[in-house]
């Protein structure tokens, strides 16, 4: 299952995905192609997604993460909690 | 975690982890901000701090019961306004500075999460200062205030945080530990996600920070000595000291602690202090004060006295003073535990010492400085620059404040141009890593991007080179009062000196000094210099081969600069432009050196090199400097027409080696290549004829020119490993230099043409091109071949054939040197060859094991070089990159 993430409303988009996780199986891909900047609430939402995925034992992949966002995920120690795909 | 601390509960760990996670997230988000984003946040923070300066000061005084409200308000304003004034235009994001001429760019990298301890003495000002610095540098901070100043500090953090977030800073950028313990601090100090500890506080906090193993800015106590010297402006000094020492009741650790006063002005100074509201204690009162405010067990100040008013402190000690007394002045007789008031006192008590001399005063200041104040701050009041400088030299302090108040002076930006700060680096003396006033640059990792910059090169040759038959006649263009001809006996006997004499203007007094036809010895040089001095020569004509010309170069050097230390000048160097030993530029005599070469090989008439020996000490001295280059070179073939065959071969091969080595040198350039390649072509073409038909004037002329042209090439591009090998081998087995070169030459070409084990560092070469340059030489010589590899092989074979034709022995073995003897010599040979500077410009860096291989190849003989070479498999069409 792949979700296109709206970079303009990143935090809300991630929170919305979070609410759907219970009904999903297997692997979820979030398309980050339109994400150019990330704020604290979005990082917290990502952290929440990662926690949920760990608990439910399924994978979340982030696709199309640009270099700047990749670096932020690294600094926030979140990059290792997702599979990053091109 | 240190073992002596209690373990933390799970709940506490979760709380601390939450703080770190919040800060880490904020720092990650912050990393995306631009300079403009950051600057948009900083300014309103500063304004918020200014607006709340008095409010925070009041909170601090109420909570800590330390200091003076008005002064604390002022400190809060300095911490915001002055700091802002310093940082507002500074770049702290992305490119911080560019130095295009040096190819350097400095880039800012935030630290991430900073764990910050703040002191009780300057609580809110330190918080304001650190918050502003953190935002300017895109860092997140977890604050751990001194427990007795938590409320005012957390309020300061809140004010800063709200202003910052309101203007776009990431959430969680500042947090403040609630009711913390030493265990909490230790946990955070050791946390993997904390990048820096910024500990401003007491010795314990600083020590803990530095012991954590994390990068830390630990800024602790001081003990500021003041020298009040007799020439000082006493009125200014007394006011400054009172201003500083009473500022916030003396809580700034840079404030004055002991004033050492010259005997002549002591009484006047104390009267001035008293007139302005200080109380001068008598001996008994001083003792009582010491007992009261200094802990006799530890020798440190009593916390209850910190930041209290002078009158209150006097009351604690049972001294009766007026309520408005500004300062208690306690005369002391020495420094150390026997004199309790000689230590740091963060309250308005000032020790004074009467010094009988400047010497004594400085010694006492050194003692105070070393009694807990190393690396911190010191103050001197004087109009005597010599005294001020001496004070600066003998005192170990990061801030040496001159003719101004210590505390406010050290804060920077008010009385001087020091960087505004609330944190003083105390250097290694204070257990710190810096003596700086801590500022934004300590909150950044400065990345330096260094672009490749080609090294500046040169092309230096004699001013004038005259060539072809009768070039010697140009001597008449050089007026001289007294000329000394340096030559050897054989050349004089065959009439060459007479040819020279005939071309010298008749009014010139000409003398001749004869030297042996061998590498010049130190004694020969001394004799030559003596002759130059006695004749007051203004011109030297060197007529001879390399040895004679080298001797004349060194004679000129010693004649013009008698103090030149030849051994020091011969010190090894890697890069002639950066050499340690500098040739003298001051000269007591001036002379012109004209070199007339009588051999066709060394190129000494145009090179900056000279070799001599010190037979008594058994050492060889090689000098290299462009000041040695002759002023004029005369390349006249009539001086080489009678050169014997053996000498023609040896010098001719030397010339060829110079050309081949200069062509592939890492110093080779578009300026040197034409000379190197021309010399190689001439040598290949004319050397056999010059040897086989010595009377062929064209061949002699061309070889004579070739030697000079090769000299021009290697004077600038230098030589390579062939020369290093030949120097060591020739010296050990007494083989002529040119012949030694010849024995190595084909092997070295094959060696340099193959893939290097180690490349030679060289900013001016963009690729390994030695093999391609050899191929180009093969093309110039018309040797044929379709690939680089084939061309290199053809060059090696052509060189072998040339050497065969010249009758050069095929191998070292052919010289009659046994394998055992050669084997025995090998350690010395390779050691000397490796120490030889010649190979430093070789295209590939020779390993010692490779030097051994090269020597054995030369021992076995040229046939070994006919084996296939392994050269880099690159396209032949690829352009030469030089």
Structural notes for this entry:
The complex is a heterodimer of chains A (86) and B (882). The model of chain A has no long low-confidence stretch (mean pLDDT 91). Chain A is an alpha/beta fold and 86 residues long. In chain A, helix 1 packs parallel to helix 2. In chain A, strand 3, helix 3 and strand 4 form a beta-alpha-beta unit. Chain B has 4 domains: 210 residues, Aldehyde Dehydrogenase, Chain A, domain 1; 196 residues, Aldehyde Dehydrogenase, Chain A, domain 2, CATH 3.40.309; 175 residues, Rossmann fold, CATH 3.40.50.1970; 220 residues, Dehydroquinate synthase-like, alpha domain. A 7-stranded parallel β-sheet of chain B has the order 10-11-12-9-8-13-14, sandwiched between helices. In chain B, strands 16-23-20-19-17-18 form a 6-stranded parallel β-sheet, sandwiched between helices. In chain B, strands 5-4-3-6-7 form a 5-stranded parallel β-sheet, sandwiched between helices. In chain B, 53% of the residues are buried. The C terminus of chain B is likely disordered. At the A-B interface, helix 2 and helix 3 of A face helix 1 of B.
How helical, in percent, are the residues of chain B? 40-55%
Strand content of chain B: 5-15%
Could you state the order of secondary-structure elements of chain A as H and E?
EHEHEHE
Sequence stretches where pLDDT stays below 50 over 5 or more residues of chain B: 864-882
CATH superfamily of the largest domain in chain B: Dehydroquinate synthase-like - alpha domain
Structural class of chain A: alpha/beta
Poorly predicted ranges of chain A: none
Tally of helical runs of chain A: 3
Q: What labels would you give this structure?
A:
heterodimer, A: 86 residues, alpha/beta, four-stranded parallel sheet, 4 strands, 19% strand, globular, B: alpha/beta, Aldehyde Dehydrogenase, Chain A, domain 1, Aldehyde Dehydrogenase, Chain A, domain 2, Rossmann fold, seven-stranded parallel sheet, six-stranded parallel sheet, 23 strands, 44% helix, 14% strand
């Amino acid at each position: 299952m792949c979700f296109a993430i709206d970079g303009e409303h990143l935090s809300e988009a991630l929170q919305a995905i979070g609410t759907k996780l219970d009904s999903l199986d297997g692997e979820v891909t979030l398309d980050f192609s339109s994400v150019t900047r990330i704020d604290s609430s979005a990082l917290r939402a990502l952290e929440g997604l990662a926690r949920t995925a760990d608990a439910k034992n399924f994978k979340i992949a982030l696709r199309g993460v640009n270099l700047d966002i990749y670096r932020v995920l690294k600094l926030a120690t979140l990059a290792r909690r997702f599979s990053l795909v091109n | 975690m240190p073992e002596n601390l209690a373990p933390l509960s799970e709940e506490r760990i979760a709380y601390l982890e939450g703080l770190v996670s919040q800060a880490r997230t904020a720092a990650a988000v912050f990393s995306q901000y631009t300079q403009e984003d950051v600057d948009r946040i900083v300014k309103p923070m500063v304004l918020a701090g200014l607006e709340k300066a008095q409010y925070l000061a009041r909170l601090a005084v109420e909570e800590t019961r330390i200091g003076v409200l008005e002064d604390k308000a002022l400190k809060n304003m300095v911490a915001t306004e002055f700091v802002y004034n310093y940082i507002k235009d500074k770049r702290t994001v992305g490119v911080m500075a560019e130095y295009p001429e040096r190819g350097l760019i400095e880039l800012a990298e935030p630290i991430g999460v900073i764990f910050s301890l703040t002191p009780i003495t300057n609580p809110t000002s330190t918080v304001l200062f650190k918050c502003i610095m953190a935002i300017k540098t895109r860092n997140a901070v977890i604050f751990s205030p001194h427990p007795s100043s938590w409320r005012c500090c957390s309020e300061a953090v809140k004010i800063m945080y709200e202003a910052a977030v309101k203007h776009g800073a990431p959430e969680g950028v500042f947090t403040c530990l609630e009711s913390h313990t030493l265990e909490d601090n230790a946990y955070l100090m050791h946390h993997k996600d904390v990048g820096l500890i910024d500990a401003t506080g007491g010795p314990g906090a600083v020590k803990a920070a530095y012991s954590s193993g994390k990068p830390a800015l630990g800024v602790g106590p001081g003990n500021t000595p003041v020298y009040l010297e007799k020439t000082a402006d006493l009125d200014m000094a007394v006011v400054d000291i009172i201003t500083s020492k009473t500022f916030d009741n003396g809580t700034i650790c840079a404030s004055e602690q002991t004033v050492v006063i010259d005997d002549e002005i002591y009484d006047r100074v104390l009267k001035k202090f008293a007139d302005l509201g200080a109380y001068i204690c008598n001996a008994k009162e001083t003792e009582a004060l010491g007992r009261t405010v200094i802990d006799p067990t530890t020798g440190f100040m009593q916390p209850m006295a910190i930041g209290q008013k002078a009158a209150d402190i006097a009351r604690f000690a049972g001294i009766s003073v007026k309520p408005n007394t500004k300062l208690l002045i306690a005369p002391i007789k020495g420094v150390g535990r026997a004199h309790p008031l000689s230590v740091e006192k963060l309250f308005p008590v000032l020790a004074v010492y009467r010094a009988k001399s400047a010497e004594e005063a400085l010694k006492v200041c050194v003692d105070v400085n070393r009694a807990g104040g190393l690396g911190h701050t010191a103050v001197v009041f004087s109009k005597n620059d010599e005294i001020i400088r001496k004070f600066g030299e003998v005192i170990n302090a990061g801030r040496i404040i001159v003719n101004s108040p210590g505390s406010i002076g050290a804060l920077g930006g008010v009385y001087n141009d020091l960087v505004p700060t609330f944190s003083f680096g105390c250097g290694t003396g204070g257990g710190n890593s810096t003596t700086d006033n801590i500022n934004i640059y300590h909150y950044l990792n400065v990345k330096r991007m260094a672009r490749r910059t080609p090294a500046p090169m040169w092309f230096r040759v004699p001013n004038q080179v005259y060539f072809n038959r009768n070039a010697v006649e140009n001597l008449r263009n050089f007026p001289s009062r007294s000329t000394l001809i340096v030559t050897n006996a054989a050349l004089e006997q065959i009439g060459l000196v007479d040819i020279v004499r005939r071309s010298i203007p008749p009014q010139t007094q000409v003398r001749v000094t004869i030297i042996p036809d061998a590498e010049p010895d130190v004694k020969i040089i001394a004799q030559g210099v003596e002759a130059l001095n006695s004749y007051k020569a203004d011109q030297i004509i060197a007529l001879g081969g390399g040895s004679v010309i080298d001797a004349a170069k060194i004679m000129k050097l010693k004649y013009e600069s008698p103090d030149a230390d030849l051994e020091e000048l011969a010190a090894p160097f890697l890069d002639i432009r950066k050499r340690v030993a500098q040739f003298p530029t001051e000269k007591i005599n001036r002379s012109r050196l004209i070199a007339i070469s009588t051999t066709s090989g060394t190129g000494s008439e145009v090179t900056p090199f000279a070799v001599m020996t010190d037979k008594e000490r058994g050492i060889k001295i090689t000098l290299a400097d462009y000041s040695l280059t002759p002023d004029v070179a005369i390349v006249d073939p009539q001086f080489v027409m009678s050169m014997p065959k053996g000498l023609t071969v040896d010098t001719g091969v030397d010339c060829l080696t110079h050309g081949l080595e200069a062509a592939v040198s890492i110093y080779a350039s578009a300026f040197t290549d034409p000379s190197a390649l021309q010399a190689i072509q001439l040598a290949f073409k004319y050397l056999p004829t010059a040897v086989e038909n010595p009377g062929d004037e064209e061949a002699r002329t061309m070889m004579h020119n070739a030697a000079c042209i090769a000299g021009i090439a290697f004077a600038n591009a230098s030589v390579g490993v062939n020369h290093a090998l030949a120097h060591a081998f020739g010296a050990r087995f007494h083989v002529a230099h040119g012949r030694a070169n010849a024995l190595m030459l084909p092997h070295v070409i094959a060696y340099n043409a193959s893939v290097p084990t180690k490349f030679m560092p060289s900013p001016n070469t963009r690729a390994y091109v030695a093999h391609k340059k050899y191929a180009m030489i093969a093309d110039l010589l018309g040797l044929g071949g379709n690939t680089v590899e084939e061309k290199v092989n053809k060059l090696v074979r052509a060189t072998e054939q040339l050497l065969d034709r010249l009758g050069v022995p095929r191998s070292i073995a052919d010289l009659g040197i046994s394998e055992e003897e050669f084997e025995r010599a090998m350690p010395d040979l390779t050691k000397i060859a490796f120490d030889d500077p010649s190979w430093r410009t070789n295209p590939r860096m020779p390993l010692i094991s490779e030097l051994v291989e090269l020597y054995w190849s030369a021992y076995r003989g040229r046939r070994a070089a006919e084996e296939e070479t392994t050269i880099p498999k690159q396209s032949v069409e690829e352009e030469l990159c030089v």
